[in-house]
Amino acid sequence: MVAAVHAFSYGASLVYDVPIRRIIVAPGIPNMLHRFEEFIGGRSYVIEVKPVAQNRWRAYIVRIPGVPTALMPFYGPTPAAAAHELSSWLTRAHERVSKPGGSV
């Protein structure tokens, strides 16, 4: 019983030494980056799209080149489709905010 408690507390400890985990590109998935520039709601946006699986791409907004923001990513079967999902969402968000008397 003591060994089981020790093992559990050791794994839950803040000083538990765990090897560094890294996200790697799965074999067979090219490590390509596509960049789209969109002008939406009077602002310029840079959208980067990267592959995450076969026929699955993740799009996100980049404020500083190469550094993604905390905005949730959008997915699609192609780079253009993923970027389109994100730009469509941004367009709807800007339209909603720009309407007089509208709430966010």
Average pLDDT metric: 74
Category from helices, strands and their pairing: alpha+beta
pLDDT < 50 stretches: none
Q: Helical segment tally?
A: 2
Task: Give a quick account of the main beta sheet: strands, pairing sense, barrel closure.
Answer: 5 strands, antiparallel
Radius of gyration: 20 Å
Distance, first to last CA: 54 Å
SSE string, helix = H, strand = E?
Answer: HEEEEEH
Overall helicity: 25-40%
Strand content: 25-35%
| Shape designation | elongated
Can you offer a commentary on this structure?
The chain has helices at 2-12, 79-98; strands at 34-40, 43-53, 56-64, 67-68, 74-76. Strands 1, 2, 3, 4 and 5 form a five-stranded antiparallel beta sheet that branches. The model has no long low-confidence stretch (mean pLDDT 74). It has a domain at 29-98. It is of the alpha+beta class. It starts with a helix and ends in a 6-residue tail after the last helix. It is elongated, with a radius of gyration of 20 Å. It is built from two helices and five strands.
Key descriptive features of the protein:
5-stranded antiparallel β-sheet, 104 residues, 2 helices, elongated, alpha+beta
